[in-house]
Amino acid sequence: GLSTYEISQRKYEYALSQVFVAIDLQQLKNYKGIEACINTIITDYKQSIPAEGKEILYPGERVVKSRERNLKSGIPVMKTVWERIEALL
């Protein structure tokens, strides 16, 4: 199917169907083995040869890195935006 971006570029949105599934992994019988399986997949994925000047990232990895950086250093805010926020106080 089309990505959300591609759908939004159409003049009319029709014949669309999207499903989002959330699974509580802790409820699965093999829960304890899932982490090892995922880590094996990521390790294999990371061994791919990246395009020149590129980094191999799995979906969501940049978000995880940003969150870790923001928890450590704070959320970056443009100075002008911060000044407007302070003006509201």
Describe the structure.
By secondary structure, the protein is mainly alpha-helical. Helix content is 49%, strand content 0%. It has 4 helices and no strands. It is extended and about 55 Å long. The mean pLDDT is 90.
Distance between the termini: 47 Å
Q: Strand share of the residues?
A: under 5%
* N-to-C series of helices and strands: HHHH
- How is the main sheet built? none
What's the alpha carbon Rg, rounded to whole Å? 20 Å
E-strand count: 0
Which ranges are low-confidence, i.e. pLDDT below 50, for 5 or more consecutive residues?
Answer: none
Shape: extended
Mean pLDDT: 90
Which class of secondary structure composition applies to the elements? mainly alpha
How is this fold's topology laid out?
Layout: H1 4-8, H2 31-46, H3 61-73, H4 79-88
Brief characterization of the structure:
The chain is mostly helical. Helix content is 49%, strand content 0%.
What characteristics describe this protein?
mainly alpha, 89 residues
